[in-house]
Fold:
Amino acid sequence: MKPDLPATTGPRTGALPLAAGAVILAGTLWLVAGDGGTPSRVVAGTGVLAAAAILAGRQARPLSNDGSAAGRLAELNRELEAQLHQTTDEHRALDHYFEMLMANVPANIYFKDTDSHFLRVNQSMAAWVGVEHPRDLVGKSDHDLFGKEHADAALADEMKIVETGQSIKGLVERENFPDGKIGWVLTNKMPFRDREGRIIGTFGMSSDVSELVDAKHDLERERNMLRSLIDAFPDKIFARDLERHYLIVNKSMAEWVGAKSKEEMIGKTPGDYFPDLVVRAGKAEDTRMIETGEPVLHREWDLELKPGDLRHFITTKVPLRDAGGKMWGIVGMDRDVTDQRRAQEKAVQAERRMQEMIDNSPAVIAMKDLQGRFLMVNRGFEDLFGLDRKDILGFTDHEIIADKAAAKKFREHDMMVAERGQSLQMDEELFVDNVPHTYMSVKFPLRDLDGEIKAVGTIATDITDRKAAERAIHRMNEDLMKANEDLKRAQEQLIQAEKMESVGRLAAGVAHEVKNPLAMIGMGIELLARRVPADDTQAQDTVERMKRGIDRAKKIVKGLVDYSSARQLSMEPRDLAEVIGDAITLVEYPLKEARVKLITDLPDDLPAVNVDATKLEQVLVNLMINAMHAMPDGGTLTVRAFGSTLSGIRRDEGVRTAGHLREGDRVVRIEVDDTGSGIDEAHMSKLFDPFFTTKATGTGTGLGLAVCRKIVELHNGMLELENRPEGGVRAAITLKA
Structure:
């Protein structure tokens, strides 16, 4: 069957016209007679189509010189072979370009059939899914490589492309990569057609744009954050182009000018919102900035948008430039500083009033930083040192105070306050014009808003006169106290003297009245005792008790007589060591019987003392017997004597005691120490009272110590009793040498 040939006036699908006499149809060369006769097939095979296409439209010419058909065919064959070789080379070059493209493009390129199986992929995609060679993916589908969710979505897209022939371009998808990461890909998918235009599958290209998308998201996040930050600012922030049209405004700016929203202001100019005077001044300023490129920094100006509400503003504007440095706009910020200005004015007024108060204070007031430099002083400080404030501020104590010792102390006290973080009050000394002055200083730390100590304040008051008055009052008080004590002692001595005088007179009367009756009773008892039968033991015992009673009464009478006897003593210079030795001899036996160890310390060089030896022996014996009675279970009795100078005593009460001991007298002291239980402190004030005793009833009369003290006082001496810290009692006699 012969094929339909195309008309010579135009080509048809599957046929290309040749010069008269030839046509290629379905890859076969047919010879056609010049008159349109039946064509003859002379050459068949692949590649002839390309050669015939080159020959299309050639002018008819003879096939050979001799005009034979064989010659013409031979020449045509040679030309076709040459054109075939050229076409093959070009085809190979195109194949090479395609292979290089597939092997080196970093994007993933693939071709699929209508069932979504891979026909061909490039090296990038093979590496992306983790296979060694692209051919390892041929015949596979997305379900073999990816999760079901991703594979189903991809299959649905490709089926839609096959059905509709519509491409999917610029699709950005979130995707789980084969290595487990989650990222973003940019995908383009198109229908894959054959030479006749029929859809035989799909092909596409995808690129990893994770970094780009993340950067975009970061940029959007930063942009939103910046926008939120700008809108949160109370300052009025704007950006305008060179024609003064608003490009960006923040919320505060829109509210300030009364716009309904930020978007309303975009594209408008300041003339739409501000008074003409402000607009003209701002335009002139913008023009200068455009011409010079210099920013406007902290320009202060006033605006009254509402009647009676004058506001103060500070404006800063800087040029906006592109990457090449060309200015394309202006960004600015208007800050309302009305409240700050008003607060600043109030602070200045408050500071001025405070300075006036400080300057008029009688105290010396100063403030120093932690390095000791003066930050503030008052007029009192200036007057004190005779300096102007400008010559003080910034300097230290050592630089302005001549008294370097005082300057050093001031610095030490300041550092003490700074280290402790609390106020201190102290007295500080300072020589002013070579005259010592005393200041009562209160130093306190000064802190900043964070609570950190930044300075030390001082308020000092001159208390020199007050200190002198205090010292005078103190001395006067001491004198008054001493005088009062002297008066009390004198009063006590007067009372004691009067009491002793009264007791002495009473004792003398009692002794006189009792002595004779006792003698008569004693004689009667002696007479009665002779008449009592020897065998009447009860009567004999009664008589003996009566005798003991008479003896006790005689002892009391004798004590009263001794107590009330005249004060004239037989005074003569004696060696006290000898007198003490005689007294010890009298008590050696009783001490031995009482198991009391005696220790003496009597130096040979004791100075002589005017004493009545008999009376002094009586005192010493009484004191040693009392000490023995204080040690019923035995103990140690120590008797010592030594010379010294009297100190710590005032016995200047007057003429009545003119012979008594005084401060600085040369004296001899006799001490009698025992190791007994001591004396109750409650009894100390009563020890020398007549008839007071701590001994058991019948053991003592209560007159011994009273008589001893009287005898010692007749010697112009002192008798003292005190408890020893180590235990026991010390009786001390002090006599003038």
About this structure: Residues 235 and 335 are 5 Å apart (CA to CA). Confidence is low (pLDDT under 50) at residues 1-64, 651-658. The two ends are 180 Å apart (CA to CA). The first strand starts at residue 15 and ends at 17.
